[in-house]
Amino acid sequence: MLDKEEIKKIIPQREPFLMIDEIETYIPGEMAICFKNVDEKEWYFKGHFPKNPIMPGVLITEALAQSGAVAILSMEENKGKNALFGGIDKMKFKKIVVPGDRLKLEVKIIKRKGPVGIGEAVASVNEKIVAKGELTFAVV
Q: Can 90 be counted among the known catalytic residues?
């Protein structure tokens, strides 16, 4: 497992917007499996929602995107660059994510052409899919 300090050597996001805690495995340019430990002290739970904390779907999507960025930005030719959203397609949210959940984030790069590519993204908790879709990225 790679920890947050090692993650920061690959992607540019920093707290409070670094949305992954560990990298289980990755293959540069191909895939990454990462984890987010959802803590009750997360900044977004103060307003989403008081007394009923639910991780926003947009932040689950961002965590998936950062996991995909691990796969792309770990490539030698992309080191020191950034991966930006180019699009989100077919994203579906199946279950809620709450404090105490361990969010598994899996992204497989399914298409690349120049600096643009598409990742197939799946987030799960306890082997149950909570979100999935396709993320388009551009390396800049």
A: no
